[in-house]
Amino acid sequence: MTQRTTARPEGRRPGPGRPRRAAGRWSAPARPVWEEPPGRAGLAAKGTLLVLACLAVLFPLWIVVVTSLSSKKTITETGGLVIVPRDLTFVAYQELLGGGQVTRAAIVSVLVTVTGTLFSMTVSVLCAYGLSRTGSLGHRFILLALMATMFFGAGLIPTYLLVQTLGLTDTYLALILPSAVSVFNILVLRGFFMGISPELVDSARIDGAGDLRILWRIVMPLSRAVIAVITLFYAVGYWSAWFNASIYLGDQNMMPLQNVLIQLVQKQEIPVGLGQAVKAGNLSGLAVQMAVMVLALLPVAVLSPFVQKHFRKGMLTGAVKG
Amino acid sequence: MTTLDTETADPAAEPGAHRGGLRRRARRPGPDGARGRDRRPDHRTGRIPLGRRFRRDRTLLLMTVPALLLVLVFNYIPILGNVVAFQDYDPYVSTNGVTAMLESPWVGLAQFERVLSDPGFRHAVENTFVLFLLQLLLFFPIPIALALLVNSVLRPRVRAVVQAVLYLPHFFSWVLVVTVFQQILGGAGIIAQTLREHGHEGFDLMTDPEVFKFLVTAEGIWKDAGWGVIVFLAALAAVDQDLYEAAAMDGAGRWRRMWHVTLPALRPVIALLLVLRVGDALTVGFEQLLLQRDAVGPGAAEVLDTFVWWTGLRSQDFSYAAAAGLIKGVVGLVLVLSANKAAHLMGEQGVYRK
């Protein structure tokens, strides 16, 4: 986060009497002269609070990961969840990813997420660009029509009846189409596109570029940050979704990963085909459950920090501009 | 999560800048001089004939078609489907939903009367309201406090790491969050397990209706309080640093600066988020509650959304559920609009402008 340092440039400059040190990103920028240095108690309190907040997030995840990697013996000895890692093993993952219910569910989830995200992004970016020029024909009306949906939802039952009437039940389209467009995301993209210098767009038009080419060649490359954020939002949405699958899909074999996770953990079931391995071998049912959880959280936990520095843009440039 | 106006948080992008500089006072040029859109002729004067405007903008219009179609089909057409709330809808009377709607008998407001006199519905309203209040009281202040805390960290790397950790749970699905809580607080969870090892009675917070509402709030905090920090951090970054210096020169200490400079700067954002939350009061975590409804029972976990789901999709009483859903939708709409009105009256920016 650099806003802080640019906001007070005097913080970066080493004072005349101070030895010049390399401005590493780990070191604190110097305080402005008027700011009193924090007391020791204050620092300690602040540090404790921050560490506690981070631990509240990380400790449960640690337990899940360690348990998923523990052997049946360790889990029996500790009587359940494992906190201290001992003789770790990947046997749960090997069994889960060696084919069968969970493997299939993971593949379904990946495919739905990738297809859905591509589809949503295409539709949203096109729409956002189409609305990004104020004063274009029908621009206000379309914007209002989109924004109105943010205030009034049609409700679960009519939506369900519609999806049924369209014949989408028991198809993967039911997991993608009803939630494909997020008006909020379109507004964020549009807000960003509107901030792009019009001289650039105009000069491209004078050179003979059509709107599609301008979007592809100029607007999108300049909006990489916000596109990354919105892609993540859509992808996380598809990856985390389970409700639509639970009401629109009847076939257990079609279920995505989250729904399988509900069955496994909430109802304490063992994945189909693994019962034997759990009874006989070195595989613990608990480790299997935890391993499915890790599979469900891994992609998100790995990808989101990369986009982190752009979150602010994704959250805030969505100004509702007339 | 929210639709925020840039003006509150990011003064660099000014909404309304495209209105043209002619009618308004001259604008302060931006740091990079990129205020070119001010010079663009105002299209809204309507001096260009419609046909030419259409030819000029048809590619743009075409680009919005896919999104509009999807919104039309999945957001607007279902609104019409709410007519089943005024019927005694029977899905099996015909081969598909639309013809079944046409053939089902009309019953006027009978379904609404049934809903409003149903103790189950009233109970769901009560639960929704209590949960909303709990979330407002316990959840709402936490992101503000966390933002102040994170903002006081000066080292960029430390800050980035803390932020990454705090944002993480927002991206986990409710299935994961509920499961994590179950594994820690549930009957077979880590706390009950440790207690049993030390000879105490085990317990299961996950199925205890008494504490369920606090549990739901805690889950919400774990998942989204860190994410809520972003908005406040942005507002904090936009505070003019000279204000702090001036206050310090006048002898204001650390806490007085926070009270007289930082908090007033956060006020518009806080007001806006409060308004958004109140407007959305009837939505208190549908997926989250649905996942735990079986464990704790409908007595503690039934809210409006799960009530609609249960009566409609489980008991197949479509008309009844649609009536309940419609009540929720209309009341929700009134809430959003009046919350906005309240924000305007308070002199703050609402979600939309008048």
From TrEMBL, chain A:
Membrane association type: Multi-pass membrane protein
Q: Which PROSITE patterns match?
A: ABC_TM1
Give residue ranges for domain ABC transmembrane type-1: 106-301
Biological process (GO) annotations held by this record are: transmembrane transport
Q: What is its main location?
A: membrane
Q: Which portions of the sequence form the region Disordered?
A: 1-33
Which keywords label this protein? Cell membrane, Membrane, Transmembrane, Transmembrane helix, Transport
Listed GO cellular component terms?
Answer: plasma membrane
Localization, UniProt? Cell membrane
Positions of transmembrane segments: 49-69, 105-129, 141-160, 172-193, 214-236, 286-307
The family this protein is said to belong to = Belongs to the binding-protein-dependent transport system permease family.
Supply the name of the protein.
ABC transporter permease
Q: Origin organism of this chain?
A: Streptomyces viridochromogenes
UniProtKB/TrEMBL annotation, chain B:
Q: What residue ranges are annotated as transmembrane?
A: 60-79, 129-150, 171-192, 225-244, 265-286, 318-337
Cell membrane is among the record's keywords? yes
Tell me a GO biological process for this protein. transmembrane transport
- Name this polypeptide is given: Sugar ABC transporter ATPase
What's the chief localization of this chain? membrane
Ranges annotated as biased composition (Basic and acidic residues): 34-45
Q: Which Gene3D superfamilies match?
A: MetI-like
Family classification: Belongs to the binding-protein-dependent transport system permease family.
